[in-house]
Each structure stands twice: as structure tokens, then as C-alpha cells.
């Protein structure tokens, strides 16, 4: 194909959000014209890489894939070395991606333990969202990442939605919009490419895209006033990536009366109407669209993979995220070209936008793959970053209620604490450490006695009861309820409540919505996240060393009928 017959004009490639100069545009055209069909298909593929050995990295590089997703939980040395190797050996520089959502699971292991989005929103200050984005950009950039699949732009409108919950900023449109925009400023100003997700907006359906296609059931007037505003604001901020969720939007019917091709039956990741008419057409988005992970049942339940893989690209996604099998999915794309299920035009458009994204990131320039090591002190777990994390932690802890005037705690009045704590915690992929709060309290002079699951509560000689729960909103996690069985033992011990025996407080370092399950709990604190700075802030707030400054970013249910 010659440069005169490109399916996207020079003006389109140079426009927002890419803003290419003449050199960048020339590189895009040169690279595009050097790619055959097989190489173009490879540019659409972005797999996970869990093996950072040289042999594994070299094998991926040899395939000419568009990008590689690695995990921030790996060591600093492994990440920096693998980034350098990928950039040195790939014929076309790859997109190196991560999911820096912060919190316990998704902070940079070698970097700063930073609270999650909802904790940031509980501070009420968008500057903390900007700092969150800046830390993600600096620390991920130092480790050789160029893109983070953040921020989450969903709304926590259904308190039963485990997959949104604390991953979102809020259930409020204006607050979410301001936090998303501030986050984008922080991330983009510090050189990382952001991705808003999950279009057309998640948080109404209590189910999880990992297990089923979910639904955004808003009327369109409500959608335009909420998610539409949030995505329009992100687009105005020149966000270069939007993630298409495995989420339907049944109310959208523009340009067609046929429900089969509207927002009703197919999720955005497979829906040309939502991606073409709504996102690109009405909202004017010109950047790259990436599917959500294509191994999720929200994607795979929509049809045979041989059909939905080419449909994903034909419908408007430019990147196929996390193929189930690289060879198999590339073959499905070849077959789609042969059958007409995937048009040459859509393939070429997707590749051009991917190349324009790479040029906008400066990947066509002769730059080092990772910053020099002498910048480590400023870019990774710096004193400034730790200070920002401490500020968010101390600003987010929220006193929901204290009807018994129990707080503040002191060793003189509340020395003996009966503790019920959820232990053996884990994320969907790895175990999580026990909380440090009991040790922190003991260091202040409190005495801790633990409730033994499977035995009746014995409050003899105890001054107060304390529940600690640390279960954040997390995709791939099926249950965020009170988990009484793990705290107290099997039925009938699940019906025990410490506040029926002695003054008790409940602290949730995760989901803020547990009030629904215990409206009679007399003292309740939300802290949203269990990273160590938040744990310290909880202890400080409970003991009066600092004030409770957080304000709930979501409406809290108190056991009322819906």
C-alpha cells in the first residue's frame, strides 16, 4: 500500500490526542508501509508476560507483537532489564504496559505503597488524584513501562458491584470527573500514557466482567449526563487510550433500530455502534481503543472465539488485549481477513493508530528504554512520594458513626481489646499479608485477645471489641460481604456480634458498603485500603493522634430496603 492510500488522513494522525510532528508522521508512514499483513496482525496483539527471562523476552520480541504487558509486582531489576531487552530487540518498538491501580495488589512493588482511588476521593482534594497519577507515571516509567491501564472512570453506583467498589473514585459524577481529570494531568505531565476504563461505564451491574457480560442499564439522558461527561472530559484532556469494556449499553439506539447491532446485546468490546457511533462519532475520540482482557467470560460468552476475535477489531478495537493463545488468535484474525469478517480497512486503521500512539510516546526517537539509575532516588519510593501517600492516608479515614461515643481509644480506658480480624487474605492471584494494626495497637499499650473462629464469643475481662476487615473492590473477586463465617465460625456462630457483648467498633480497610450488613453496629470507620500508611493512619485516628478528616465519596447503605 502506498502512502497516498492510507485509510487515515495525515490530519487525523496528527490531530489530538497524538499531536504528531512531521518527523513522527513520517515514521508512522514508513513503518506502516514496511509491514506486511502478518506483521500488521502482530501489531494488534498485546499479551501478558509472566516470565521475564531473556529466553521468554526474546521469543516475544521475535514475534513483532504490538506490545507486552508485565506486572509491577516483579523486581526492579527484572522489570528494567526486560524493558531494555524488549526495546533493543523488537523491530518496531513495543508498547510496554502495566495496571498501576495502586492499593495492595497494584502498586509498584519496588515503589510507594499508595492508597486506591476511593481513598484518594475520600480526601476530597483532586490534587491527591494528580499526585496519584504522577507517582504511577514516575515509578512505572523508571521500571520501563510506557502505559498504565488507569484510571478507572467507573461509578460505584451499585454497592454490590465488587469489581468496581474501591477501584472507582466515587458514585458522584462531578467528583469522579474532577478526580479523573486531575489524575490524567499527573500521569501525562510525568510522561506516562493513561487509559480510561471501562467504556461505556461500569458500576450499575453487581456482576463482574470476568465471569459474565455486564450491563450499563442507564437511560441515555442519564448516560450523557454522567459517563458521557466523564469520557468527554478525558478526551478533552487528550487521553490516548480508552478501554472498551465487556459491558453493554442497551439504551443506545442511534442510527439503527436493530437491537442486534445497538448497545443491547453486544458489549462495547464487540460493538461497532458503541465504539464507532458513540465513542468516535458523538464524543469525537480519535485515540486508540483497546479491548478489555479477552479471556474474560464477558467476552468469550458472546460467541465462538474464531468469530469474536476478528469481530473485536472490526467493531472498532485497535488492540486485542491478553489473547488466550497468541498463535490461535492471530490465525483467527487471518481467517477473518480471508472471510471478510475483518476488513483490510479496519486492520490498517488499527495499525496506523497504534503506530501513531507509539510515535506520540517518542518511541521512534533514539531514547533509552529506562531512565538512568541516578534518577532512582527521585522516581522510585522517594521521600516526596511517601509523603504524598501519608497525606492521602491521613486524609481519607472516615468516621461513619460513633453512636456510643467510644472514640478516641486510650490504653487507660480501653486497654483490653477483643479482636476479630479477617486473616489469610488474598487477592485473586496471590496471598496478602496480615494487617499490622494489632501490633501497632500493642506498641501503644493495648492488649489484644483474638476471637477464635469456631468458638463462642467470650467477652470476659475485655474492655472493647474490634473488627478489622480488609477486602477491597477487586476484579476477579466474587465476594465482598461481611464474611461472618471466617470471623466467627460456621453457623450458628455466624450470628454472633461482639457489640451485643461489649462496646465495639468496626473498621473496614476496603469496601465502604459493609454498613448494609450491620446497620446496628454502633461505631463504624471506613478506610478504603490496607496499605501500611492507611493502617497507621487508622491507628492514629482511633487513638486521637489525628482527626477523622475523610468524607465518604459514596452514599452508604444502612440496611434499608432497596
Automatic annotation (TrEMBL):
Q: Which reaction does it catalyse?
A: Hydrolysis of terminal non-reducing N-acetyl-D-hexosamine residues in N-acetyl-beta-D-hexosaminides
What InterPro entries has UniProt attached to this entry?
GH, Glyco_hydro_3_AS, Glyco_hydro_3_C_sf, Glyco_hydro_3_N, Glyco_hydro_3_N_sf, NagZ_Beta-hexosaminidase
State the family named in the UniProt similarity comment for this chain. Answer: Belongs to the glycosyl hydrolase 3 family.
The cross-references to Pfam families, in alphabetical order and at most eight, read:
Glyco_hydro_3
Keyword set includes Protein biosynthesis: no
Coiled-coil residues are none
Q: Which UniProt keywords apply?
A: Glycosidase, Hydrolase
The identity of this protein, by name, is beta-N-acetylhexosaminidase
First-tier enzyme category under EC: hydrolase
One BP annotation, GO: carbohydrate metabolic process
- Please name the source species: Celeribacter baekdonensis B30
Give its E.C. classification number: 3.2.1.52
Superkingdom as given in the UniProt entry: Bacteria
Q: Which stretches make up the Glycoside hydrolase family 3 N-terminal domain? A: 38-356
Amino acid at each position: 500500500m502506498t502512502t497516498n492510500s492510507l485509510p487515515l488522513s495525515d490530519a487525523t494522525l496528527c490531530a489530538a490526542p497524538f499531536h504528531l510532528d512531521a518527523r513522527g508522521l513520517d515514521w508512522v508512514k514508513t513503518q506502516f508501509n514496511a509491514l506486511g499483513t502478518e506483521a500488521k496482525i502482530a501489531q494488534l496483539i498485546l499479551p501478558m508476560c509472566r516470565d521475564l527471562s531473556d529466553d521468554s523476552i526474546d521469543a516475544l520480541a521475535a514475534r513483532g507483537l504490538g506490545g507486552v504487558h508485565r506486572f509491577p509486582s516483579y523486581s526492579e531489576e527484572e522489570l528494567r532489564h526486560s524493558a531494555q531487552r524488549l526495546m533493543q530487540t523488537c523491530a518496531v518498538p513495543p508498547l510496554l504496559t502495566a495496571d498501576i491501580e495502586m492499593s495492595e495488589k497494584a502498586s509498584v512493588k519496588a515503589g510507594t505503597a499508595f492508597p486506591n482511588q476511593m481513598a484518594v476521593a475520600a480526601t476530597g482534594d483532586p490534587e491527591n488524584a494528580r499526585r496519584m497519577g504522577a507517582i504511577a507515571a514516575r515509578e512505572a516509567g523508571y521500571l520501563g513501562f510506557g502505559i498504565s491501564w488507569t484510571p478507572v472512570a467507573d461509578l460505584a453506583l451499585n454497592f454490590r458491584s465488587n469489581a468496581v467498589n474501591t477501584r472507582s473514585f466515587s458514585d458522584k459524577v462531578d467528583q469522579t470527573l474532577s478526580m479523573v481529570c486531575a489524575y490524567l494531568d499527573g500521569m501525562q505531565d510525568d510522561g506516562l500514557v493513561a487509559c480510561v476504563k471501562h467504556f461505556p461505564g461500569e458500576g450499575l451491574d453487581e456482576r463482574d466482567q470476568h465471569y459474565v457480560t455486564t450491563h450499563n442499564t442507564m437511560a441515555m439522558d442519564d448516560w450523557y449526563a454522567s459517563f458521557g461527561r466523564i469520557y468527554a472530559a478525558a478526551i478533552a484532556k487528550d487521553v490516548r487510550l480508552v478501554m472498551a469494556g465487556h459491558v453493554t449499553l442497551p439504551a443506545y439506539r442511534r442510527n439503527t433500530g436493530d437491537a442486534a447491532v445497538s448497545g443491547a446485546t453486544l458489549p462495547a468490546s464487540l460493538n461497532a455502534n458503541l465504539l464507532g457511533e458513540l465513542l468516535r462519532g458523538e464524543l469525537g475520540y480519535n485515540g486508540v481503543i483497546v479491548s478489555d482482557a479477552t479471556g474474560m467470560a464477558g467476552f468469550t460468552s458472546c460467541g465462538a472465539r474464531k468469530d469474536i476475535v476478528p469481530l473485536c477489531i472490526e467493531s472498532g478495537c485497535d488492540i486485542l488485549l491478553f489473547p488466550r493463545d497468541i498463535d490461535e488468535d492471530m490465525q483467527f484474525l487471518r481467517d477473518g481477513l480471508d472471510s471478510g469478517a475483518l476488513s483490510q480497512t479496519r486492520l490498517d486503521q488499527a495499525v496506523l493508530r497504534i503506530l501513531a500512539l507509539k510515535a506520540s510516546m517518542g518511541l521512534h526517537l533514539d531514547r533509552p528504554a529506562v531512565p538512568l539509575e541516578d534518577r532512582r532516588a527521585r522516581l522510585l519510593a522517594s521521600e516526596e512520594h511517601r509523603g504524598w501517600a501519608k497525606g492521602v492516608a491521613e486524609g481519607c479515614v472516615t468516621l461513619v458513626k460513633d453512636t456510643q461515643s467510644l472514640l478516641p481509644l486510650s490504653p487507660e480506658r480501653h486497654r483490653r481489646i477483643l479482636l476479630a480480624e479477617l486473616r489469610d487474605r488474598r487477592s485473586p492471584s496471590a496471598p496478602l499479608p496480615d494487617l499490622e494494626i494489632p501490633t501497632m495497637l500493642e506498641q501503644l499499650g493495648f492488649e489484644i485477645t483474638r476471637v477464635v473462629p469456631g468458638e463462642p464469643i467470650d467477652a470476659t475481662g475485655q474492655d472493647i471489641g474490634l473488627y478489622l476487615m480488609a477486602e477491597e473492590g477487586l476484579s476477579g473477586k466474587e465476594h465482598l460481604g461481611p464474611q461472618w463465617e471466617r470471623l466467627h465460625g460456621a453457623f450458628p456462630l455466624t450470628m454472633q456480634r461482639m457489640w451485643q457483648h461489649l462496646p465495639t467498633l468496626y473498621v473496614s480497610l476496603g469496601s465502604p458498603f459493609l454498613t448494609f450488613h450491620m446497620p446496628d453496629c454502633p461505631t463504624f470507620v471506613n478506610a478504603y485500603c490496607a496499605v501500611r500508611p492507611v493502617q497507621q493512619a487508622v491507628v492514629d485516628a482511633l487513638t486521637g493522634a489525628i482527626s477523622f478528616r475523610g468524607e465518604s465519596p459514596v452514599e452508604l447503605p444502612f440496611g434499608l430496603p432497596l
